[in-house]
Design brief:
The chain has 301 residues and is of the alpha/beta class. Helices cover 50% and strands 10% of the residues. The chain folds into 2 domains: 3-99, lambda repressor-like DNA-binding domains (434 Repressor (Amino-terminal Domain)), CATH 1.10.260.40; 110-300, Endonuclease, Chain A. It contains 14 helices and 6 strands.
Amino acid sequence: MGAEEAVHTPPVSRVLDAQSAGPMVPRMVLGARLRRLREEKNISREVAGEAIRASQSKISRMEWGRHGFKMRDVADLLTLYGVTDEADRATLVALAKQANTAGWWQPYSDLVPGWMQAYLGAEQAASLIRCFDAQVVPGLLQTPDYARVAIRLAHPGASVEEIDRRVTLRMKRQQVLHRQRGPQLWAVIDEAALRRPVGGIGTMRDQLRHLMEICQLPQVTVQIMPFLAGGYAATGGPVTIVRLPGGQLPDMVYLEQLASALYPDKPAEIEYYWDVMNRLVVEAESPEATRTILHRILQET
């Protein structure tokens, strides 16, 4: 892709709600354009890093939208990549300014680690979210009481005020499911997560009822991986894949861990996790069976 094609890609505002996305998606759009410009000139990340007095790993993070942009760095990279037209440069510099705005989670910035910010931005801008969890109900589907217990387990030393704020943040994230142009959510949950009484019997029964209600929304699909399935495709932990609108950006794979997260971003890695997710939905019970299974678990709880 040449410079002219790169800078005339449709702007972010045409394909998503920039207020909902925050800076994350503009970062990804700008990073993708810079990566294509660099590859068009056959310039290595190492050379690009030297041009802005940075490491090649920083160039990689910038190109995948997981690092902010200094105006000077963008200007120097555009010069290195041969983008000399003032209008074209102004377009990309303006995108860099948008990419540096505060995220929607800014009031909770003290609670949101740097490794999670990329995912939070993508989640709110997504057209599709696919997820799997074997241990707990996915965050976008949790009730406030269930979320409070799950968060307390993850942050045992947190104050009551901090726990309250973390619950509020999680509930704000869930609003994306009720927006007019929100994403499709397709979740696969292990039966074990539904039978483990997180917070006690009462909290778990309310959580099961909530799942029965929310899976009736046309934009939400929930499948259950039964015990009888035996082994299945994903055994290493939770997996989330986010697809962004517009067809301009690669899918984001998000693997959350106890105190960090991985974002596999090589095309082969992204394809691998899509294959895992597709196998999970085949191995799990059908979406049509979900309410019946939830009702049975509720009766047995």
